[in-house]
């Protein structure tokens, strides 16, 4: 990465960590994806049950392979199974020891803003798994919820294309505010702060590009 751009990512990541720490999340700075990956693995105890939220950043870290092959109980929703069996795994994963996930946006008010298709990721972030580990690039930092929604809408076509949904945005590259069954924008959530359960939500902010 260009040195000037890297400098800006570092500034944004430090700013995000300060904001999140002030809002009672367990916030951490990571210089790059590898450092973030090491931090995630350092937080998870061997033998623990683990669920993964849909996230490009997590894919880029190769965590699926690690949790499949390591001494963990993975709620593996990425298996080739009938849809109703995948939904059952997603239901069970709400009781995981750890949920590892990305976030669509972090606001300068300390909010985590997300849009889900099925709702399993955002529901687990809010309640269920004992610990939540959020991994996000500093590029997710935006001013407020309004800016977060704008960001979410700009990346939703990429996510829809990634998961193979035939939504209008996949044809045009921009949100068409569709009204189709395959719509991926179904559950918009705002987590306001990390006050409720001390240390439950850890957030690792990466001073680098990662995910969408
Ligand atoms: S509302 Fe529909 S068109 Fe807009 S981003 Fe979501 S899935 Fe795509």
Structure overview:
InterPro entries: LUD_dom, NagB/RpiA_transferase-like, UCP020269. It holds the Pfam family LUD_dom. This is LUD domain-containing protein. Residues 14-206 form the LUD domain. This protein is an alpha/beta fold. The protein has a single domain (3-206), classed as 3-Layer(aba) Sandwich (Rossmann fold). Helix content is 40%, strand content 21%. It is built from eight helices and ten strands. It has helices at residues 3-22, 33-43, 56-61, 63-69, 83-92, 120-126, 145-162, 168-172; strands spanning 26-30, 49-52, 73-75, 98-101, 105-107, 112-116, 131-137, 141-142, 187-191, 201-206. Strands 1-10-7-4-2-3 form a six-stranded parallel β-sheet, sandwiched between helices. The longest helix has 20 residues, at 3-22. It is globular and about 45 Å long. It starts with a helix and ends in a 6-residue tail after the last strand. Iron/sulfur cluster (SF4) is lined by residues 153, 156-157, 160, 167-169, 175-178, 183-185. Residues 153, 156-157, 160, 167-169, 175-178, 183-185 line the site of iron/sulfur cluster.
Number of domains: 1
Radius of gyration: 17 Å
Cofactors and ligands: iron/sulfur cluster
- Give the fraction of residues assigned to helices: 25-40%
The major pleated sheet works out as: 6 strands, parallel
Mean of all residue-level pLDDT scores: 96
Kindly report the CATH topology.
Rossmann fold
Please tell me what the overall shape is: globular
**CA distance, first residue to last residue:** 16 Å
Which CATH-level-2 architecture?
3-Layer(aba) Sandwich
H/E element sequence: HEHEHHEHEEEHEEHHEE
Low-confidence residue ranges: none
Which percent band covers the strand fraction? 15-25%
CATH superfamily: NagB/RpiA/CoA transferase-like
Number of helices: 8
């Amino acid at each position: 990465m260009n040195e000037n751009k890297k400098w800006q990512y570092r500034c944004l990541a430090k700013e995000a960590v300060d904001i999140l720490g002030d809002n009672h999340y367990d916030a951490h700075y990571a210089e790059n994806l590898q450092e973030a990956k090491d931090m995630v693995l350092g937080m998870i105890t061997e033998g623990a049950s683990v669920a993964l939220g849909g996230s490009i950043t997590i894919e880029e870290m190769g965590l699926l392979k690690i949790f499949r092959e390591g001494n963990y109980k993975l709620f593996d929703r990425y298996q080739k199974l009938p849809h109703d069996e995948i939904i059952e795994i997603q239901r069970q994963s709400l009781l995981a020891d750890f949920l590892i996930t990305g976030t669509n946006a972090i606001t300068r008010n300390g909010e985590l803003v997300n849009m889900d298709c099925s709702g399993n990721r955002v529901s687990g972030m809010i309640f269920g798994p004992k610990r939540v580990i959020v991994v996000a690039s500093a590029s997710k930092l935006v001013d407020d919820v309004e800016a977060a929604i704008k960001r979410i809408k700009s990346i939703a076509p990429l996510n829809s294309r990634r998961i193979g949904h035939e939504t209008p945005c996949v044809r045009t590259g921009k949100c068409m505010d569709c009204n189709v069954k395959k719509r991926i924008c179904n559950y918009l959530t705002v987590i306001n702060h990390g006050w409720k359960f001390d240390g439950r939500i850890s957030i690792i902010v990466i001073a680098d590009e990662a995910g969408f």
